[in-house]
Amino acid sequence: MRVSSVQPVRQAAYPAVETPMGDFTDAPENAMPVETGDMASGQRLPMIDSAAAGVQVAVANAGSQPLVVPPQGVNMDAMLGVAPASGSVVGLAEEQSREIAEGNASQPVVGGIGSDDVRQLGGQQQAMVAPDAGGDADLPMLTPERQAAEEARRAAFLEQEQRATLRKREVREERQVAFLPRAGNPLSGPDSEPDFTGRMPAAEIACRQRLKKLRVEFTDVARISKGKSCGIDYPIELTGLSGGIDVKPAVKLNCQVTEAFAKWVKSELAPSARYRYLSGIKTIKPLGGYSCRTMNSGRGNPMSEHARGNAIDVGKFVLNSGKEIDVRKPGFFAFREKGLLKAVRTDSCKYFSTVLGPGSDRHHKDHFHFDLRSRKSGYRHCD
Q1: Which residues contact 303 (CB under 8 A, 6 or more apart)?
Q2: Dihedral angle sign, alpha carbons of residues 271, 273, 275, 279
Q3: CA atoms of 297 and 295, how far apart (whole Å)
Q4: Residue 308: which of 349, 379, 257, 240 has the closest Cα?
Q5: Pairwise CA distance, residues 372 & 367, whole Å
Q6: Which of 180, 238, 291, 340 has the fewest CB atoms in 10 Å of its CB?
Q7: Ordered per-residue pLDDT tens for the chain, 383 residues
Q8: pTM for the whole thing?
C-alpha cells in the first residue's frame, strides 16, 4: 500500500475573534505570516518580547473584554466577592493597647514584673481604690484574703533572707576566729604564751576551796611564765598539810596536783605511818616541784610534768618521834620501812597517774615521783 503525500492542515493559532491586534509596524520584516480565520493575510503577530506585545495583550474571556490592571493594584477582596473593609486595619497589639487604655481588657494586666510589688493594673474584675481611701486610684485594691497571703509570703521571704544573712555572718566570724593566734597554734610562733587574762577561772577558785576543806596550808603566788613549754598560770606555794604536817622546803605546784597530794597524805600515808610506828608524820621533805626541764633532764627528751608544776618529788618522811625514813632502798632487816615504802608505791597509784620510785630506774633511786600526766584510755604508770 502506497502512502501519498501528506497535505498540511492549517489551524488557527488564536481564537477567531474580531479583536483588533493593533498596528504591528515594528515587527521584523522577516516575520513569518500566520493565517487565521478572519485575519487578513499579510498581518503579522508581534514577537513575545516586543514592546507592542507588552502594551496591548488581548485575553479572551466571557465578556471578551481586555484585562486592565489598575494603578492602585488588584483588589482581591472585590474579585472574590468580599465586601471591602469599612475602616483601616487594626493590629492585635494596637487593639490590646486600646483595651488597656480604656480599662476594658479581658485579660489581667500585670505591672511590677521582676520586683516584689507585682500587681494588676487594669481589668473589670478589680474595683479601683477610692481616691479618699489614702491609696493610689490607678492601682487595684486587693481582697483581704489576697492581702493576707501576700503579707505572709513577704514575711516568709524576709525571714529566709535574714537567716541566710546571719548564717553568712557566722561562717565569716568562724573563719576569722580560726586564724587567730592561739597557744599551741603554729601560727602563733615559738615564743607565744598561753592565753592569760589575769582573772582566776572558776575551776581554779573551786580547787582552792577544796584545799581549804582539806586543811592545806598554801599561798597564791605570781604567775610563772617561761614560754609555751614552761610555766603555771595560777601557781600556789605549798607549805603544810592536814594533821599539822609541814612541807619543807615549800614547793610551787599547780592546784590540781596539790589536791591529789593532800588527799593521798591524809587518807593513805599518815594512817600507814601510825600503824607501823605508832607515831604520826611531822614533816615531808620534797626534792622538787616546779622546774623548767625535760624528762630526766635529758637532752631531746619531752618536757617533764615538773615544767608545768604538775609533779612533786619526795625524798624523806620525818616522824613525830624524830625518826627519818629515807625512801631509798632500806636495809635487809628494815621490815617496817619496807612495808611503809611498799604502801607508798601501791596506795599512791590511786591518786596519781604516774608513780616512780627507787627500783624503777636510776633517775628515781633516791625519791618518789608523783604526777598527774594525762594519758589515753586513763592509763596509769606505777613502778
Answers
A1: 229, 230, 293, 294, 295
A2: negative
A3: 5
A4: 257
A5: 17
A6: 180
A7: 555 555 665 655 555 445 454 444 444 454 444 444 444 445 555 555 555 544 444 444 445 555 666 776 667 766 776 655 555 566 666 776 777 666 666 666 666 666 667 666 654 444 444 444 444 445 556 677 777 888 888 888 888 888 888 777 776 766 554 444 444 343 344 444 446 677 889 999 999 999 999 999 999 999 999 888 899 999 999 999 999 999 999 999 999 999 999 999 999 999 999 988 888 899 999 999 999 999 888 888 899 999 999 999 999 999 999 999 888 877 666 788 888 888 898 899 999 999 998 888 888 888 999 999 988 877 888 87
A8: 0.50
Cell numbers for 70: 489598575
Q: Which residue has the cell 592569760?
A: 196
Question: Which grid cell is 51?
Answer: 514592546
| b/e map 235-274, b = 16+ CB within 10 Å | bbbbebbbeebbbeebbbbbbebbbbbbbbbbebbbebbe
